[in-house]
Amino acid sequence: MVNETDQPYRPDYFPIAQPAARDLLRPTFGRSHDVRGGNVKHVRSVAWSCDGRRIATGGEFKELLFWDTKMNIDARASRSLPSSSKTTVHNGHVGSIAWSPVDPNILVSGDKGSSAGGVIAVWDVTSPSSPIATFKIPGDVLHISFHPSGRHFAVVCPQRNRDEVFFYWINTIDGVEKWERRDDVALGGASMDMGAEEINSLRFTNSGKLVCAVSNDGSINAWLYPTHFIKQEDEVVEEVSEPRIIESGPSTTPSTPKLPAEEEATDAEPVKSREGSREGSLENTREGKDNAEDDVEMAEGEEAPKEGEESNNEASKEDDTATAEDRKDDTVTQGGDVEMTEESTSQPMTQNLSETIPAPSSAAPSRQPTPPLPPPAKPSEKEKKKAKQLQRFRHAICHSASLLSLAFDPQGKYLAVGGQDALLSMFDTRGWICERTFDVCSAAIRHIAFSHDGEYIALGGDDTYIAIVSVYSGATVAKLPVHGMVSSIAWHPRMNWLAYSYSGKIASPIWHIVHQET
């Protein structure tokens, strides 16, 4: 562990920003306290409770432990969640944990690395036998962040195309408060707008009005977050009206002008068409065919007509004779190409076939009525209600490389971001202007954390050390050596104690706590 000294010759050295100018002692950090035992495998996450009396760790082997800081922090003082006699609810290693900022007994944990999907568990450490609420999500849990009110928290779930963020809150049902997933708002997923294909880190602002995230395109994004319920607008389902059945109607094609002879014949009886019968006519039905066969047999004289049918036969013969005369006149008066001088001898078969000829094209065609369409299926309530995407407040690309981490100053003055380019940028939360850039790392910055008073900021990632930097002077206060990639860092909420863990080739699971001496 190296404590950096003041360097007046540096270009960014400002005497007014030094600790002595503000009646503060020069900060120094002692040796780190190694916590061994308790965990079976590597420690993935570390977090302090809001009052600083408890600290929790999440491990690879579905482990979730917490310690009481009043006692000695060692393996014997650790307690597991759930208790040792219960089966854990997690499917993979616990990669993310977060304490409530207002209730020191509420802890939220999430796992990843399991094909069965992720599990989010809400614990009350005063009754560690089982979680008070559990939720399943379709992917891993990358990050958990609490709202400043302690009644909301967000979970980042990586997806193939676009990462998705799920929001949870305390909902009062019949006078009982329960943790539930919000179905009225959403962030990410397939319906997300421009940018933010990958949400690498997410935080709520100190006021709780905005939720901010950094993306792999080097952008900082902010959305307005509503703490109240958003009334969902049901989708308007257009009802398809049943088609009106039209049995007959005017023809859409222009009709051929009629000759005087045709008009006289039409007044007597509509002239049959020569194109043959269509579907739906009487002759194509079974009853029509049977009647036609009976007419043919009666014309051949094999069977005598009955007494009751004589009048009908005579009327049909008169109709056939008139039809034959109309056909003759029609043929003679056509363009002169064909002249029929001899009267065609109408045989019974011809007379019967003439009955099967439908009306001319000028008349309305006969067709079968269109069957009504089935009514549309009514969507279920879940299909009707879709979560509304959060309204984007700001989208600014500030780095040329992917951004991996962000953190807000406890005083609400600064927003710090870091990423693959090994630079730490400090933005003003009012104007969103970059005020300063820290070049203290040589590899990707994956974790950032402010101290409780906002004086220091700790950053770590792929480097061989964790750097503690003074926010106001820009000087590197200390460098804590690590032997692997940093997996988590967290400051004590009331003192300058820094807990951290890293994944490396070590004999036993271990995590560390370092204290500020002066």
UniProtKB/TrEMBL annotation:
Domain Anaphase-promoting complex subunit 4-like WD40: from-to ranges: 442-492
Bias (Basic and acidic residues) occurs at 269-291, 303-331
Which portions of the chain have biased composition (kind: Polar residues)?
A: 343-355
Question: Which regions are annotated as WD repeats?
Answer: 396-430
Position of the signal peptide: none
State the similarity comment.
Belongs to the THOC3 family.
Q: Which Gene3D superfamilies match?
A: YVTN repeat-like/Quinoprotein amine dehydrogenase
Q: Which BP terms does GO give this entry?
A: mRNA export from nucleus
UniProt cross-references to PANTHER family, sorted A to Z: THO COMPLEX SUBUNIT 3 (PTHR22839:SF0), THO COMPLEX SUBUNIT 3 THO3 (PTHR22839)
Keywords, A to Z, come to: Repeat, WD repeat
Skewed-composition ranges (Pro residues): 368-378
Region (Disordered): which ranges?
Answer: 240-389
The name under which this protein is listed is: Anaphase-promoting complex subunit 4-like WD40 domain-containing protein
Q: Give the GO cellular component terms, alphabetically.
A: THO complex part of transcription export complex
Q: Where is the composition biased (Low complexity)?
A: 358-367
- This chain's source organism reads Kwoniella bestiolae CBS 10118
Ranges annotated as biased composition (Acidic residues): 292-302
**One Pfam family per UniProt:** ANAPC4_WD40
